[in-house]
Amino acid sequence: MAQNVEIYGRDFEVTDHMHDFVMGKVAKFERLLDSIDLIRVELSYSKAARSAMDRYTTQMTVTGKGFMLRAEERSDDIRTALDAAIEKLSRRVNRFKDKRNHNRGTGKALGEYAAELEYVEEETEPQVVVKRKTFDLIPMAEEEAIEQMKLLGHDNFFVFFNIKSGSVNVLYKRQNGQYGLIEPRVR
Prior knowledge:
With 187 residues, the protein is α/β, with parallel strands linked by helices. It has two domains: 2-99, Double Stranded RNA Binding Domain; 110-182, 2-Layer Sandwich (SHC Adaptor Protein). The protein has helices at residues 16-32, 78-99, 110-116, 142-152, and strands spanning 5-10, 36-45, 56-64, 67-75, 139-140, 157-162, 167-173, 179-182. The chain has a four-stranded mixed β-sheet. Strands 5-6-7-8 form a four-stranded mixed β-sheet. α1 (16-32) runs parallel beside α2 (78-99) and α2 runs antiparallel to α4. It starts with a strand and ends in a 5-residue tail after the last strand. 20% of the residues are buried.
């Protein structure tokens, strides 16, 4: 498991003792999920935080085949923030395991769907794009996209490959708490 865990400190020195403490805590996830590719733990300290209760932050991301789960917690003590993040992530892992096999569709790989689609290249203006981000899309149904959106803690939107429509869709949360779906069409 040691090669699958990355521990980073931002404005925070990760000592050997803290490294061992974190490794002991994240070992729990190896028992909960069998297909973990990477566990990333970022520990940070912010002297300029508004409240002393928000000085230490722990961000944890667990990625594997077909999933990415994330939790972030703040506290006045790094160990308290770490314990709270582990607890939150454990709840998300259990929730993910419960919903994992529902609405998986035909089981086709993304590459099989991508071969069926036509892509239109658009000219982009480099001075307008300030950041680019890439991520893997997992074919899923709308119901599973809603679950993934909740599990990841995304409050505004979630991009996914819709197995029903065979296209990339954007799921978003409306002001009334309901969900909306953007289904792009190429003309």
